[in-house]
Design goal:
Helix 5 runs antiparallel to helix 6 and helix 7 runs antiparallel to helix 8. The protein has 169 residues and is mainly alpha-helical. It is built from 8 helices and no strands. 76% of the residues lie in helices and 0% in strands. The relative contact order is 0.10.
């Protein structure tokens, strides 16, 4: 019985020690792309989508968009694909197209954490702090203020506000 309790304590310690490493690996930090930008109820990923993720990691936005368009032709109801389309267009500086795809992603899945984070970041890029904060609040409600998407967008909002205060003084 003593060995059983000792084994349980060791297993519990292992889980406690591993949790921060898993969180760090999945959060991706900052506003960069991570595959955790997918929704929890993600559709099966097709080869075009997987190739597009690689193009995004290589910052080949136009190549990613071409592949994501092919992916959407197979599955026009993929919030994840629409989200990555928005992300790619945002990184090209085409905010009209970015907002269009983020809106479609959130229409398909209003609880898509990655889309809320990325559209909030797009609003900061277009100097619309009010809309960015709306999506930050939605993320707070969706994940109880404790998810990487909330933390990342919150950092971006804080940095944006600090930068604006620095300009006005």
């Amino acid at each position: 019985m003593k060995n059983f309790y000792g084994l349980c304590v060791l297993m519990l310690a292992g889980f406690v020690l591993a949790a921060p490493a898993v969180e760090a690996a999945s959060s991706g930090g900052g506003s960069g792309f991570t595959s955790s930008s997918r929704s929890k109820k993600t559709n099966p990923v097709d080869s075009f989508y997987e190739q597009a993720e690689k193009r995004i990691k290589a910052e080949d936005w136009k190549g990613a968009i071409a592949l994501l368009e092919k992916s959407l032709s197979r599955n026009s109801k993929s919030a994840d694909t629409e989200n990555l389309m928005g992300y790619s267009y945002r990184n090209l500086g085409n905010y009209d197209q970015a907002f269009k795809h983020y809106a479609r992603a959130l229409e398909l899945n209003p609880k898509h954490l990655g889309a809320h984070e990325y559209v909030g970041e797009a609003y900061l890029k277009t100097e619309n702090l009010k809309k960015a904060k709306e999506h930050l609040a939605r993320l707070g409600n969706l994940c109880a203020y404790d998810c990487p998407e909330y933390r990342d967008l919150r950092k971006q909002v804080i940095a944006y506000e600090r930068a604006r205060k620095g300009k006005s003084s």
